[in-house]
Specification:
495 residues, eight-stranded mixed sheet, two-stranded antiparallel sheet, 8% strand, disordered N terminus, binds 6-phosphogluconic acid
């Protein structure tokens, strides 16, 4: 938590000048965002509800750090240039509302509150509307990249009041991660809750990526009985190709960390995943919108099932299990696992972008999907080379119904098809759960099926509930009912 050399030594700061921005909340993210802002020449007032946290934070900073402590909200407000900008990093939920209510008596119309936490997009929509009534501007800003990102460059997804964004656009683009072409991973996303919505989709995709990697790991370890060192080396190798990404990179690192006895550190970690809730929100929103978000939803359920540790241990004893080792060509199957991971990743992002498209229609947002892909090229948890391919797909045709209508991705799936099915078959035969990888394959097969067995569902619904059905050989929109338990006659049910 030290200022970068470029700041700690140069340019004397005029400590009598008002601060450019306040950071409220000095947890891991808040502290590091404040340091990042100061690194970029901003004068930052910092405040934390627990004063000792503020004291500890500023105690180690050099006098010209550009960070100044406030210990009450009146002082915090007085320390800021006008219009005041207060950046919140507080726990999502009611805490944010309480903090806002505490701030309002010290703010004036035209001042700006920015919520940089993982707030639910509906909360951000509500806060934007409420505060607008009170003359205070609001931005709901998705920030991705964890501690490292906050300190040295996160991906930033701002939404809320479009008129407020220009006030702070420069400073947030300065502190954001930069893609290889130097472009900041920070651009306006949309009005109201759009910024936090896109962050939520980012987190849903993050869940999917993490689950897919875990499934590939288990296929290699349990399905192919690969030594740990070889698995780590494989992820490192895969990180050089189309799967190149932060999550693959850190997985290769994690799988090399050993204990003194040579065992893997990860094998001593309890196999029960936590979740703060953003992935779950994504799946709930998909159900509400009617989005077939199968992979990410399965990733959420996989976390839930993993948390049922005791029950799984008991079930394993009762139901047996075990994974017979694959007897075929392991090198070929390893390539197949790579292809399955890549193909399923394409499906996951396809579904994520499908959800954003449907949400945009629902909420009246104008989301720029290619630009959103650019936002995620650096700084965020799902950062990867893959996002450039998504950007290019939307550049070719911004109006494609889904990424699967883009030739690059359609061709990639055709090439991966056999390996994908072989890898899923390995899991099925070996009793290795592949909720994400297999769900992706079923989605793919369903999405490209001109005919699916939903006609039988319609007949069943009409049989027991007289819910009626349409016929393919009659006018679209006309509804019919069969007297299944009577004379089997058919009648129109339209008025
Ligand atoms: C990010 C991450 C972050 C996430 C935590 C915990 O973009 O920096 O997505 O926002 O909240 O990593 O997430 P879960 O507890 O939901 O796994």
């Amino acid at each position: 938590e030290t200022l970068s050399a470029s700041r700690a030594t140069n340019q004397q700061r005029d400590t009598t000048m008002p601060s450019d921005i306040a950071v409220y909340g000095l947890g891991v993210m808040g502290r590091n965002i404040a340091l990042n802002m100061a690194d970029h020449g901003l004068t930052v007032s910092v405040f934390n509800r627990t004063a000792s946290t503020t004291e500890d934070f500023v105690a180690d900073l050099p006098p010209d750090s550009g960070i100044r402590a406030s210990y009450d909200l009146a002082d915090l407000a007085a320390s800021l240039t006008r219009p005041r900008v207060v950046f919140l990093m507080a726990k999502a939920g009611q805490v944010v509302d309480r903090v806002i209510e505490g701030l309002l008596p010290h703010l004036e119309p035209g001042d700006l509150i920015i919520d940089g936490g993982n707030s639910h997009f509906r909360d951000s929509q509500r806060r934007y509307e409420d505060l607008r009534q009170r003359g205070v501007r609001f931005l709901g800003m998705g920030i991705s990249g964890g501690e490292e990102g906050a300190r040295h460059g996160p991906s930033i997804m701002p939404g809320g009041d479009p008129e407020a964004w220009p006030l702070v656009r420069g400073m947030f683009r300065d502190i954001a991660a930069k893609a290889e072409d130097g472009e900041p991973c920070c651009r306006w996303v949309g009005e109201g809750g759009a910024g936090h919505y896109v962050k939520m989709i980012h987190n849903g995709i993050e869940y999917g990526d993490m689950q897919l990697i875990a499934e590939a790991w288990q296929l290699m370890r349990s399905g192919l009985d690969m030594p740990a060192a070889e698995v780590a080396e494989t992820f490192g190798h895969w990180n050089q190709g189309v799967l190149s990404s932060y999550l693959i990179e850190i997985t290769a690192e994690i799988l090399q960390v050993t204990e003194p006895d040579g065992s893997l550190r990860v094998d001593h970690i309890r196999d029960a995943a936590g979740q703060k809730g953003t992935g779950r929100w994504t799946a709930i929103d998909a159900l509400e919108l009617g989005v077939p978000l199968t992979l990410i939803s399965e990733a959420v359920f996989a976390r839930v099932l993993s948390s049922m540790k005791e029950e799984r241990v008991a079930a394993a004893e009762r139901l047996g299990g075990g994974t017979p080792t694959y007897q075929g060509d392991k090198a070929l199957m390893l390539d197949a696992i790579h292809d399955a991971l890549y193909a399923a990743k394409i499906i996951s992002y396809t579904q994520g972008f499908l959800q954003m498209r449907m949400a945009a229609a629902e909420h009246g947002w104008q989301l720029a999907y290619g630009e959103i892909a650019l936002l995620w090229r650096a700084g965020c948890i799902i950062r990867s080379r893959f996002l450039d391919d998504i950007k290019q797909a939307f550049d070719r045709d911004a109006g494609i119904p889904s990424l699967l209508f883009d030739d690059f991705f359609a061709s990639a799936l055709r090439s991966a098809d056999k390996g994908w099915r072989d890898a899923v078959s390995l899991g099925v035969q070996a009793g290795i759960p592949l909720p994400a990888m297999a769900a992706a394959l079923s989605f793919y097969d369903g999405y490209r099926s001109a005919v699916v067995p939903a006609n039988l569902l319609q007949a069943q619904r009409d049989y027991f509930g007289a819910h009626s059905y349409e016929r393919t050989d009659r006018d679209a929109g006309a509804h019919w009912h069969t007297r299944w338990t009577g004379d089997l006659g058919e009648e129109s049910v339209d008025d």
